[in-house]
Amino acid sequence: MSSIQERIDQYWEEVKNWTPSSAEEVEIYRLKFLVSKGILKNLFEEFKNVSVEEKRALGKVLNEFKQATEGRFNEFKDQFSEEQSKAKPSQDLTLPGPGFEFGARHPLSLVRKEIVEIFKKLGFVVAEGPEIEDDWHNFSALNFPEEHPARDMQDTFFIRKQAGNDIALRTHTSSVQVRMMENGKPPFRAIMPGRVYRNEAISARAHCFFHQVEGLYIDEGVSFADLKQTLFHFVQEMYGEGTKVRFRPSYFPFTEPSAEMDISCTICKGAGCNMCKYTGWVEILGCGMVDPNVLENSGIDAAKYTGFAFGMGIERITNLKYEIKDLRLFSENDIRFLKQFESETI
Ligand code: DAH
């Protein structure tokens, strides 16, 4: 065992360098050096046994060490008792927690989800595609010939203009149809929700971005009757049994024949109101039998397969369900508007 003098030197180093960062570390210090079985007491016990000659010099050193050790402890105590009393109020575990507010689903998300659920039960899967799209998928493959006036039906935000190779923000989700057919084999039964963009002035009735759900059903022997029944079923589920539908002939480059579908006004039930402009009917979607050119463009044998497609605006479907009259509300993030959908559980 090393001599008492050597051990005092060693401990002294330790005491000098002890820099506690918590009250627990102060307590460890106390237990090591100051309690009745601690280092200080031990050294004094051993001191009793040293020779008389040694006692004088060693006694002085030992006393100094004792004072230093106790002095350090008092410093630590002051430091940490101050900190503890400062910290106390925030550590009152009996106080109730601060609580937090739950958010609500956005009405467009609610309705998108509802649409998806209805079609899922009919065996439709969900597919998605890119919002930045090339000319082929947004226009050419969908039977919009170059320079054809039909391209003006949709005011496009172009990202890159390059003859035959434009890149744009997609103007509709019909582009996803093409991607799906190019990348798979029939039969296809899918719905494709997503955001679309058009270069329009923002007002209560128009926005530069909005949301659509595209539908596509391709198989052998699919007919217009399948289209009508599928969409009729959708309307009954979405707006309740007894909601009427009617189809009006229309034109889209990618369907032939094409139609627009109206439903009996959900607000006035057909009696006539502001929403339906006193006609009793409101338009909710475009649809038709997929044009054989589109099938061939996407690598599908049009002699063997037929199919239908439809596209609806989620904002429109939502407006009719919740009577929202200004499109801008959907993207303003006004908490008073959004809070109204808190109790919706879908
Ligand atoms: N893409 C059309 C639009 O944005 C909507 C549409 C109409 C989609 C008819 C279709 C369809 O699939 O068959 O206005």
From TrEMBL:
Record-linked Gene3D superfamilies: Bira Bifunctional Protein, Domain 2 (3.30.930.10)
E.C. designation(s): 6.1.1.20
Superkingdom per UniProt: Bacteria
SUPFAM superfamilies: Class II aaRS and biotin synthetases, tRNA-binding arm
Names of the cofactor(s): Mg(2+)
InterPro entries (alphabetical): aa-tRNA-synth_II, aa-tRNA-synth_II/BPL/LPL, Phe-tRNA-synth_IIc_asu, Phe-tRNA_ligase_II_N, Phe_tRNA_ligase_alpha1_bac, Phenylalanyl-tRNA_Synthase, tRNA-bd_arm
Coiled coil: none
Protein name, per record: Phenylalanine--tRNA ligase alpha subunit
Organism: Olivibacter domesticus
